[in-house]
Write a structure and sequence with these properties.
The chain is α/β, with parallel strands linked by helices. The chain has one domain (about 10-250): TIM Barrel, CATH 3.20.20. Helix content is about 45%, strand content about 15%. The protein is built from eleven helices and eight strands. The chain has helices at about 20-30, 35-40, 50-60, 85-90, 100-105, 110-120, 135-140, 145-155, 180-205, 215-225, 240-250, and strands at about 10, 40-45, 65, 95, 125-130, 165-170, 210, 230-235. The protein has an eight-stranded parallel β-barrel, surrounded by six helices. Helix 1 (about 20-30) packs parallel to helix 3 (about 50-60) and helix 1 runs parallel beside helix 11. The longest helix has 25 residues, at about 180-205. The structure holds glyceraldehyde-3-phosphate (G3H). This is Triosephosphate isomerase.
Length: about 250
């Protein structure tokens, strides 16, 4: 079944951004024409410290604000952690879970990611679940099977096209300037679509599948044109309004 899916262009600021970065966000908001906003949903996931300020600036515009991670519990003795409910309270509408930098830096496995996705839903947030293979796994010809395993175990039962977005991010393409070929992206996204449609039927067929990893204005049109690519999760190029809006041009 082929379904018309409105793309999502999400920017992940990672551990970048001070209060002065609000100026860049103002520029994004100012540059977002109605045509661009009609062509895709737009989201910025800043550091948690900036969510309230950016949510205030975004109010009344088409830009959504998301978090970059959450704890699985609602509250409690978890020093330094932030719950999905806190993100929601701060103005977020979504949260990234299972980013490869969390999986690597904090040893998060699929079980933890699955619990975080459920926490996102509990708080009324969209879970953006990240998956992706390492360079060694791709070279060993295991990319598709690794990602299928991550999908099976990180995406909880009950996922719908409304509460879940999947982001395929090959680890070796993040921040490196390297990207897979359009053919490799197509193969992976088709495998993910088949997996999700088989498990969640219509919901899986309509779920947004983002590509992430060195997306820039120069390569966005080619990557976003690939079948079953329903948007992008952008790191470095989301920090500057000009670059981020340049990527959005790929949809107009
Ligand atoms: O979450 C975003 C990704 O990790 C991509 O980062 P990048 O666009 O800097 O390669």
């Amino acid at each position: 079944m082929s379904v018309k899916i409105k793309p999502l262009l999400a920017g992940n600021w990672k551990m970048n951004g001070l209060r002065t970065s609000q100026a860049e966000f103002h520029k994004m908001k100012a540059g977002l024409t109605d045509t661009l906003a009609d062509s895709a949903n737009i989201m910025i996931c800043p550091p948690a410290t900036l969510i309230p300020a950016l949510a205030d600036i975004a109010a009344g515009s088409a830009i959504l604000v998301g978090g970059q991670d959450c704890h699985g519990e609602k509250s409690g003795a978890h020093t330094g952690d932030i719950s999905a409910e806190m993100l929601k309270d701060a103005g977020a509408t979504a949260v990234i879970v299972g980013h490869s930098e969390r999986r690597t830096d904090h040893g998060e496995g699929d079980g933890v990611v699955n619990a975080k996705a459920q926490a996102a839903w509990r708080a009324g947030l969209v879970a953006i679940v990240c998956v992706g293979e390492t360079e060694a796994e791709r070279k060993a010809g295991q990319a598709v099977s690794i990602v299928q395993g991550q999908l099976n175990n990180s995406v909880p039962d009950g996922a719908t096209a409304e509460n879940t977005v999947i982001a395929y991010e090959p680890v070796w393409a993040i921040g490196t300037g390297l990207t897979p070929t359009a053919q490799d992206v197509e193969e992976m996204h088709k495998a993910m679509r088949d997996n999700l449609a088989s498990r969640f039927s219509d919901a899986g067929a309509a779920m947004r599948l983002l590509y992430g990893g060195s997306v820039k204005p120069a390569n966005a049109a080619e990557l976003m044109a690939v079948s079953n690519v329903n948007g992008a999760l952008v790191g470095g190029a989301s920090l500057k309004a000009e670059d981020f809006l340049g990527i959005l041009d790929a949809y107009s």
